[in-house]
Design goal:
Radius of gyration: 43 Å
Helix content: over 70%
Strand content: under 5%
Largest sheet: 5 strands, mixed
Number of strands: 7
Distance between the termini: 66 Å
Structural class: mainly alpha
Number of helices: 26
Amino acid sequence: MLEWNDGLSLGVKAIDEDHKKLLEIINRLSKAIDENATEDVLEGIFSDLNEYVSLHFAREELYMQQNKYQDIEEHKKQHDSFAAKVPEIKEKFFHAKDYAGAQEIAAFLTDWLVNHIINEDMQIIETLKNRNCKQMQEGKRSFLKCVISKTTDILSFNKRIFLSVFIPLSGMFILSYFILYGYYNNYTNIKDTSRLSSIIYDISELTHSLQAERGLSSGHLSSEHSKFELSLQEQRKDVDKNIKAFAGKIQTINPDKLASIHTCIHRFHSEIISLDDFRSRIDKREISQSEMIVYYRGIVENIIDITSKIEIFNLNKKISATLDTLSNILHYKEQIGLKRAYGTILIEKKDTANEDFIAFIQLLNAKEILLHKLEHTSSKKYIEIYKEIQKSNPEKTVVSYEEKMKNRDMQDLDSKAWFLAISQYINKIYSFEKELIQELETTIQDEINRTVDDFIVLMLYLSGIAFITLALLYIFRASTQKQIDELTNAMIDLSKGGRNFRLIKLRTKDDIAKIHDAYELTRLKLLKGDIYRQLYLNKKEIEIKNHERENAKLETAAFLDYLTKTTNRRKFEQLAKTELARSSRYKTDLSFLLLDLDYFKNINDTYGHAAGDDVLKHFANICKDAIRNIDTVARIGGEEFVIMLAQTNEENALLFAGRLLEKINNSEMKINGDTLKYTASIGISIFDYKNETELKTILDRADKALYEAKKSGRNCIKVYKNL
């Protein structure tokens, strides 16, 4: 189906809406053909087409009269010719014998609509250029636009050159102001970011040491011995040193630049004041491990949030990307730190029936979440570094511990070994942080240098442009600039594949007018080429669908019995071999029922072979309705059928056969005004997957069982193994 292209727009809203409606009706027809819609639906679509064609032609002719279009009579003849052809097209459509033929008629209607718009209605544009200061689609044009349009129509290109005075120069100075202002804003923004980013190194150091203190504290609280105590005291000294360094760095920054992170800084001071008291409670074991983890987690996440706020404050994309990556790594390292703390607690307690175990499990997918974030925000370089870290030996050790903890197998795990391995892994992440911080500092400095260099180059460039503009000021004019801008935008749009940028034909006959005409001719040719290419693809799609339908019909016919529409013997043998192999491989039950209509020859002799065929179809339908979608019913002889029951043992096969005989006995047919009832005999054999491989052997047993059923008076069931 064809989609509306804005390049087909005439600029007249009512007529454009008509064209869109006609295209929608033609697309409905194509879709209805594809979906095998009923004749009533197709009749309705053609009725809509006929009605809307007449409405559109009337509206278009009225518009041309109002605008005094000089070739209106010729246009009316074209309208009348197509309106008379619609009934003929409809008749041809309903006489089309196949899907491809019907779609070809739909393609013809699409082709007509495209030609109607491009080759006929595009001429209406000639009337639009004479409607000065009037609406083209909606709203009134301003007085200034009317003056510019009038000037463009009356004055040639060369005359307009000599009429321009100060506009180019004024425009250049205004543009220069905005460009310079933009450079200044960019420079100040990067400088502000540089000042704030100076504390990121201290953030990394402080969070890393706090995370280590939390991990050792968890080991201390969960262990009954003092194996973590010495390491914990040393780590606290390191934390205190980093707290002092971070607080000192904040004091050196201009308070005005800290506004965006003021809340985080205030909370940091409050939490640090309470840290000594909290450590004392840890030493006295007056708090639980969960309370300890929550406390440290609050401090660390508050500090990490400073990085996120600095990222939001910055407007430079490259710096923001590095800050975003760093923020993600900091949050990820915090997740690993929490995992270290909870894991230490679990190993020490050997208890998984608590909230600590649930919290630990929830942290296991942190690295996949980080990788997902990095893939959306980071460069390929950082993603590769992260993936290399994931392949490191500490990570492998951590993963093996995690698997055992996840499976509640903690008896042989050592908390110190776990703490050491995951700490080594955290240190690798910490090294990654350092690399990111170094990269950030380098990027900020490079951006500052680049901004200064660009500023200097721009100043030199603008000075040169000002000199040239002053020297050539008397040459250029405002209307010339307008035309050049229009043509430039049009060509850029065309180069990008756009087709809807239309240039109004100029009244003057100078070089610019020739360029306008050449552009418009090119645009229309490209537009028409786009439409025909889409039509070609639609036709190819129709042909492919037609071939697929024919192939499907042939494939179905090759595997079905021509009379009963059950599986034929050849296809049944293929399916049976596959099912025998599956049953042997997976040791599942498989049963075969051989069915034969009783006294079928008498039915043929009494009612004729046509009635006999009806009985066979009736019997086949009963069998198809009775089976599951994993079973198969096939006709393998005149009145002989076989049913393969997958995953069915002898007991269930007998139950199925009983229900089937009951349905047959309860059914009846009307033949030549008489009520006909018939019966069938069934022989059953069960596949022995331990000793059998051949279908013929199984069917021979079923045939023997069927023979016994016939001997026993017919209309009964016999199983081979019970004979």
